[in-house]
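Incident log, support desk, overnight shift.

02:14 A customer reports that sequence design results differ from what the structure should imply. Their input is reproduced verbatim below. On-call engineer (initials T.W.) acknowledged and began investigating.
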């Protein structure tokens, strides 16, 4: 991974210079900086705070209202204000509609805002854990300060387990090993030193042996150095700046759905305006009524229902070790059909484990393990990751380490050295001493294969020594190294000495080898299989080498036949890359921008892509993806950029998120499709009736009230059951098939609306009012109109609510697909209460009245016929289009 020009030149300069030059350039003394120097350098070089976007409470508040659905509602508020308040006579002026829309708008935004703040609180607590303290030389003494207070030129110390707080030039080290996987994506653990960099050109961060970079983790040893860069001027900070803001997949889908609704409004409103104006002759009334049609066609509580669905899904995930920072990401979970993951820390544990202990021919050797254990246990240098893995054998049931401790005592050692690349331990065999045998001590050497083998004269196999043959060594270890393993050699010799010097590390006997591996997580394979069943294939995007990536993926049963590395990607045309991304599972040795490029190509191929990573090298990919996923313990910048944070580095948690996201998607789709088609059917009936009838079939406020009451009941949909086949595969969040659904099921509703109009206008209303509409006086005509409007209000309410049961699933309602009990309870209670509303004062306030019992017999018959016809039509629709919701 190459760094940017400014940062790279700064690092290159001091990596290749003597430490004294740094002391001179930064005016550093042995006492460190005093307070005045700290303030001076902070003014020049800045603070150790990343260049991050701070999501304040106010920012999240405005984001809660900033979506296209809310904008449509806001437009309707303005329209209602002008039509019902400004352009209306004092006698008919009524701001109820406008007020109700404002309340809906505010409640919808606050539902989202409350969940956003819950997530923000959880994220803030995580990020606070990342900010660490650091040992710094100030005013002549070492003191502990917050890493945020560091300045360029500070002398700092760090130890095993610490996170490097800035870019630092090393001046003193003690067996220092660091992991730069957060920055490079490679699982290698690298030894650092304080020597002047000899390389003429460095192509990756791993080449800088005397620099430790912000975000790296100290695996073993300790170090001291001078701060070269802080905050956004570090390599870490530069990567976090070099990103583009992505457009959320939810917003794209929402725009698509809103676009369909707007098209219907754009077609119907002018038609209603012209037809009503021509028939009734009152163009102002026609204009106002046509605008109320726009209000009626739009599901006013769409933002609230969607936000309720998203918030409910986010809340459920919060109980499953997942923080959903942006609740729009719940939809992304449901639509995701490709999951890209970084290997290190995701598929693997980012922890080296001992895989094999073998003799020179590759057979398992207990002696090799015992000698290696003694060497790792007894050397006093700070243990590195390999020693830790070896010492874990104490937990093996058949490994009697207590016996070894009784038999062998430590006499001396020569610690690990960067140039020597091995460690030697001299042990006394107490059994020889007790039995008066030849009192020879045991020298055990462990380290780099090439280096240790050069020190060997013989190789031992089954107790016999053979002349050393490097060709035989490579015949054994090359295959293991090709399989992505780390291999070290174990050698020994007997000696009478009680103290050793480097010259004693010659004429050794090669005993065998130890192999180590960054092992896949136990849970990873199970999770991958679950994701495959959910039709979410995994693609591995890693900075590691091809052989390491293949080795890990083979153990996880991922396809390893097709693999490509970053270097070969440059040679492909756009068309070749588009095809390759579809057919390839493993992408190795990638730069951060190449990861983002692959995700972009997949998106251009029509996929909704999620990306899971935990290092700074993953930041570009996180921002490019439709759903950016990080894990607790990831870098601060990555946690800020991600949509979702996993509190466990476990792909099984992702499976639960995908399932919950798909359920959220289905329940949102139920509401949008059923409501939009019902509204379209009702408005179509209104349009026809307004041309044929001498009065409007429903007032603007009645039309709005009808939609509001129905939408209130739909707030229970987030808790509805979802058929398994509806969440077993990814679903596209868009309005592609919404128009088709509206045009198919909407007119069915219109048929029964017109039937109700005919029954009311030709029989029920004349019977109760005492004659046909034209034969009545003004007062009786008002009674006629009130009865008509109330009758249609009830028919629309009953049919809209009850049709939910038929269209919520392509299966037979209550038999093959059962709604959730809360849905049944709320809808039944809602119908009863809203029916009662027609006979209480609030009903009279909006122009409704009590209906005779004979009408309810007709109403029940009409609704049953409507549901039956919809059920038949549904079967035909599913058969033709293979889907419903």
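02:41 Re-run completed on a clean worker. Output:
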């Amino acid at each position: 991974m190459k760094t940017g020009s400014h940062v790279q030149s700064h690092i290159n300069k001091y990596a290749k210079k003597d430490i004294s030059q740094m002391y001179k350039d930064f005016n550093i003394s042995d006492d460190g900086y005093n307070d005045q120097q700290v303030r001076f350098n902070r003014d020049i070089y800045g603070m150790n705070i990343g260049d991050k976007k701070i999501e304040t409470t106010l920012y999240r508040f405005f984001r809660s209202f900033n979506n296209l659905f809310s904008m449509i509602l806001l437009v309707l508020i303005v329209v209602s204000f002008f039509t019902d308040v400004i352009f209306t006579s004092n006698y008919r002026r009524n701001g109820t509609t406008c007020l109700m829309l404002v309340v809906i708008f505010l409640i919808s935004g606050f539902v989202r805002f409350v969940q956003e703040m819950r997530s923000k609180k959880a994220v803030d607590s995580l990020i606070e854990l990342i900010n660490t303290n650091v040992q710094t030389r100030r005013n002549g003494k070492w003191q502990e300060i917050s890493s945020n207070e560091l300045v360029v030129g500070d002398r700092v110390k760090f130890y095993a387990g610490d996170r490097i707080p800035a870019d630092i030039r090393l001046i003193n080290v003690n067996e220092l090993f660091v992991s730069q996987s957060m920055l490079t994506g490679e699982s290698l653990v690298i030894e650092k030193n304080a020597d002047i960099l000899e390389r003429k050109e460095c192509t990756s961060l791993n080449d800088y042996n005397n620099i430790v970079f912000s975000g790296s983790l100290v695996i073993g040893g300790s170090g001291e150095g001078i701060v070269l860069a802080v905050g956004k001027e570090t390599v870490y900070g530069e990567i976090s700046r070099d990103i583009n803001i992505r457009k959320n997949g939810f917003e794209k889908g929402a725009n698509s759905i809103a676009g369909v609704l707007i098209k219907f409004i754009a077609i119907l409103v002018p038609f209603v305006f012209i037809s009503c104006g021509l028939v009734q002759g009152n163009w102002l009334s026609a204009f106002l009524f046509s605008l109320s049609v726009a209000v009626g066609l739009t599901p006013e509580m769409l933002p609230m229902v969607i936000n309720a669905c998203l918030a409910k899904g986010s809340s459920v995930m919060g109980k499953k070790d997942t923080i959903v920072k942006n609740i729009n990401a719940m939809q992304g979970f449901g639509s995701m059909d490709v999951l890209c993951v970084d290997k290190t820390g995701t598929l693997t544990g980012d922890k080296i484990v001992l895989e094999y202990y073998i003799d020179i021919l590759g057979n398992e050797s207990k002696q090799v393990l015992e000698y290696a254990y003694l060497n790792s246990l007894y050397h006093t240098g700070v243990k590195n990751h390999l020693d830790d893995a070896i010492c874990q054998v104490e937990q093996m049931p058949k490994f009697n380490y207590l016996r070894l401790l009784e038999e062998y005592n430590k006499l001396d050692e020569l610690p690990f050295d960067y140039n020597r690349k091995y460690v030697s331990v001299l042990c006394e065999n107490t059994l020889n001493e007790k039995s008066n045998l030849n009192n020879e001590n045991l020298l055990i050497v462990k380290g780099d294969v090439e280096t240790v083998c050069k020190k060997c004269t013989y190789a031992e196999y089954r107790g016999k020594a053979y002349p050393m043959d490097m060709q035989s060594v490579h015949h054994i270890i090359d295959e293991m190294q090709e399989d992505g393993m780390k291999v070290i050699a174990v050698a020994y010799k007997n000696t009478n000495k009680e103290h050793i010097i480097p010259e004693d590390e010659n004429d050794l006997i090669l005993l065998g080898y130890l192999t180590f591996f960054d092992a896949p997580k136990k849970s990873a394979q199970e999770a991958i299989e679950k994701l495959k069943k959910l039709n979410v294939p995994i693609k591995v995007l890693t900075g590691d080498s091809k052989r390491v990536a293949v080795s890990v993926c083979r153990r996880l049963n991922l396809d390893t036949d097709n693999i490509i590395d970053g270097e070969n990607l440059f040679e492909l045309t756009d068309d070749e890359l588009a095809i390759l991304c579809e057919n390839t599972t493993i992408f190795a040795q990638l730069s951060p921008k190449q990861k983002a490029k692959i995700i972009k190509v997949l998106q251009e191929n029509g996929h909704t892509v999620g990306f899971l990573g935990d290092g700074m090298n993953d930041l570009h990919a996180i921002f490019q993806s439709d759903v950016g996923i990080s894990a607790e313990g990831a870098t601060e910048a990555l946690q800020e950029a991600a949509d979702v944070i996993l509190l466990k580095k476990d792909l099984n948690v992702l499976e639960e998120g995908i399932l919950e996201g798909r359920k959220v998607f289905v329940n949102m789709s139920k509401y949008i499709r059923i409501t939009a088609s019902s509204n379209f059917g009702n408005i179509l009936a209104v349009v026809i009736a307004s041309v044929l009838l001498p009065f409007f079939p429903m007032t603007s406020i009645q039309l709005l009230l009808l939609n509001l009451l129905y939408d209130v009941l739909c707030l229970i949909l987030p808790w509805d059951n979802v058929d398994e086949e509806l969440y077993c595969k990814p679903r596209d969040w868009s309005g592609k098939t919404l128009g088709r659904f509206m045009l198919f099921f909407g007119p069915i509703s219109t048929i029964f609306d017109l039937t109700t109009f005919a029954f009311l206008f030709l029989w029920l209303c004349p019977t109760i009012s005492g004659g046909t509409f034209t034969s009545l006086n003004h007062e009786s005509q008002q009674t006629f109109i009130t009865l008509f409007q109330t009758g249609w209000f009830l028919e629309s309410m009953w049919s809209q609510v009850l049709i939910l049961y038929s269209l919520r699933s392509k299966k037979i309602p209550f038999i093959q697909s059962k709604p959730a009990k809360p849905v049944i309870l709320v809808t039944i209670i809602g119908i009863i209460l809203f029916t009662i509303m027609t006979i209480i004062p609030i009903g009279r306030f909006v122009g409704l009245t009590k209906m005779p019992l004979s009408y309810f017999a007709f109403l029940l018959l009409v609704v049953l016929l409507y549901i039956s016809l919809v059920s038949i039509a549904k079967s035909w629709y599913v058969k033709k289009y293979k889907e419903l919701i």
